Structures are given as structure tokens and as C-alpha cells.
UniProtKB/TrEMBL annotation:
GO terms for molecular function: oxidoreductase activity. This is LLM class flavin-dependent oxidoreductase. Residues 10-305 form the Luciferase-like domain. It comes from Actinoplanes sichuanensis. Its EC number is 1.-.-.-.
Length: 338
């Protein structure tokens, strides 16, 4: 199973340094999220800062994930083509819808019918990347381009597209129209086995290509003291426990009361990334990989046979920069030892 990394950096230069360390440790892909930074700008920095030499280990570069509806599909396609050129054919376009509030309140983007809209988004991106004149797609989202052709030769015939998804319809869509699926940060092996893989297989049954990359994901907190490791990761779980969209998932696992406490703390003014003290160790263990190096290696091994790769990120929510740096160094040590 491939180990991927979502690197952290307080500055872009530090982020690139972390990506180089992940490359040296043997990581398969470094992924650029989109929350506090622009995913495409970060991916460009990672592509320029890592090795393009085809005779050596070449780490992949991906957006994990870029927002699909906050940009036009054509602009997304052009960014993907540019990044594939910049990276020497190492780019993977990871897209996700985000939630309704993020699209509407943060970006002024509509969020109606997300599944068919994402289907159309992928179709338009593929049409633009394929070239040709005219470029026409009719659907929930349409495009009609005449008299335009990208005058630069592509690095390769096909740029892989990955879709993030949580609900069964979105996961099945990924299986049907994408080249890979990227997990949410909270995706334990049981969730992958019991709920995600059946939906992916249903989508793959309708797909034309047999090749597909399943990328699990987890916050990975490594420390010689497992109690310290859990406490570093607890804010990640606390953040999601306070979000109404995830309440059903936590309630089904027996953590409904914790979610209620986290939501109440948020309403009273607590920052969303500071709720880790409300999260019991059992909940941290259920949704993150936290513990000693040996414990973390065992937890990563539980994904074997369920995923082709796992995207590991250091704990960062609500932690001072120095502590995140320490946690990331321990994570990279772990990647190099597996």
C-alpha cells in the first residue's frame, strides 16, 4: 500500500521543505488541500520544489482536494494542464464539492444538485483537456466553446481525476467517472470496508476503465507517549464533532453525546479547533491514527486490502507551530520506516 502525505508548513517555503522530506522518505504523492491556501498555487510550489528526474523516485503531486464549484470547469482544466506540464507529468487533479454553506457563504457559488453537477464538471474538464474545436457539453452545467484550441502540446494523454465523496451517491459517482477516490480525513477501516467500498464497486460496475486508485486518509499523530499522541490529534476529531453534517456518523458509533457537547461549546464561543478536551480517547482512536510508531504502523496496516494508498496528515488543529513541526517530523520518520 502506498503512503501519501499531506504536508504542513507555516510558510510556503516550509511546506515545500516538508514535501521534499516526504519525497526522501519514499512517499508516493504529496497532496495540497484547499482551506487556508489555494490548492493549485500550493501544488505548483510542490511541483517546482520536488524532483522531475525520471531516473529517480518521482513523487506525485495532487490537489487533495480543490473545490469543484468555486471555479469554472474550464479554468480548472487549464490549471490541471499547466500543473501537469510544470510537474513533468506527475499531477493528479483531486476535486470535491465541499458543503453547501462553504460554497454559498464563502464563495458565492450555487450548490444545487451536487452529484449531477460534479458529473458534468468532470465531463467538461475531460473535454477541455482532450482539446478539439468545438468543445460542447450540455447538462446541469454546460459549455459551448468555438474557435479556441490550446496551442501547447500536452505532457501526456490523460491527467488522472480523483473525486472526494462521503455520501453513497457521491462515492458511486467517483467510482463511475473518476480515476480515483479520496477519503475524508475521518475514514476508519470499518467505514471504508462496510460503506465506501460497496458504493465504489457499484460505480465501478458502470465505468469503462478497470484502473482505479482508492486513497484512504487519516490524521496521523506519532509520539513515544501514546497519550501525548492522542491529545495532539483530539482537536481534529473535536472540530468535526461540532459540525452538524457529521452528527449522524458519530451518533451511529455511539458518540452522539460528545457531539452535543462540542456543538454547545461552539455556540458559546469556543473556537472550532480547540475542542479536543471534550473528545475521549476512544473517539480519537476510532477516527485517527495516534500512538507510538509501532502502534501507528499497525493501524496503517489495517487499511491493507481496502485501499491502494493512505494520505497521512500531521495533527495541526489548534496546536502551536512548533508542536505541529515536531508532529510532522515524527510522521515523516514513520513514512520512511514503513
Amino acid at each position: 500500500m502506498r503512503l501519501d502525505v499531506q504536508p504542513w508548513g507555516e510558510t510556503m517555503a516550509e511546506l515545500v521543505t516538508a514535501a521534499r522530506a516526504a519525497e526522501s522518505a519514499g512517499a508516493g504523492v504529496v497532496w495540497a488541500p484547499e482551506l487556508h491556501r489555494n490548492a493549485f498555487t500550493t501544488a505548483a510550489a510542490l511541483a517546482a520544489g520536488t524532483d522531475r528526474d525520471q531516473d529517480r523516485h518521482r513523487i506525485g503531486i495532487g490537489t487533495g482536494i480543490a473545490l469543484a464549484f468555486a471555479r469554472s470547469p474550464m479554468l480548472t482544466a487549464l490549471a490541471a494542464a499547466d500543473l501537469d506540464e510544470l510537474s513533468g507529468g506527475r499531477f493528479r487533479l483531486g476535486l470535491g464539492t465541499g458543503v453547501a454553506r462553504l460554497n454559498q457563504d464563502w464563495h458565492g457559488a450555487e450548490f444545487e444538485r451536487p452529484v449531477p453537477r460534479l458529473r458534468d464538471t468532470v465531463a467538461v474538464i475531460r473535454a477541455v483537456l482532450a482539446g478539439g474545436d468545438p468543445i460542447i457539453h450540455q447538462g446541469v452545467r454546460s459549455i459551448r466553446v468555438r474557435g479556441w484550441r490550446r496551442p501547447y502540446p500536452p505532457v501526456r494523454e490523460r491527467i488522472p481525476i480523483y473525486l472526494a465523496g462521503v455520501g453513497p451517491a457521491m462515492v458511486a459517482l467517483a467510482g463511475e467517472v473518476a480515476d480515483g477516490w479520496i477519503a475524508h480525513e475521518l475514514c476508519p477501516p470499518s467505514e471504508l470496508r462496510d460503506r465506501i467500498r460497496p458504493a465504489l464497486l457499484a460505480g465501478r460496475a458502470r465505468a469503462g476503465s478497470p484502473a482505479f486508485d482508492v486513497v484512504a486518509a487519516a490524521c496521523c499523530s506519532v509520539d513515544p507517549d501514546p497519550t501525548v499522541a492522542r491529545r495532539r490529534a483530539a482537536n481534529v476529531v473535536g472540530f468535526y464533532a461540532s459540525v452538524r453534517s457529521y452528527a449522524g456518523m458519530f451518533e451511529a458509533a455511539g458518540f452522539g453525546a460528545v457531539c452535543a457537547s462540542a456543538a454547545e461549546a461552539l455556540r458559546t464561543g469556543r473556537p472550532a479547533d480547540s475542542l479536543g478536551d471534550l473528545i475521549p480517547d476512544a473517539m480519537v482512536d476510532a477516527y485517527t491514527i495516534a500512538g507510538t510508531p509501532d502502534q501507528c504502523r499497525t493501524r496503517i496496516g489495517a487499511y491493507d486490502g481496502l485501499a491502494d494508498a493512505i494520505k497521512l496528515s500531521p495533527p495541526s488543529y489548534g496546536l502551536p507551530a512548533g508542536e505541529v513541526r515536531f508532529a510532522q517530523d515524527r510522521l515523516l520518520d514513520l513514512v520512511g520506516s514503513v
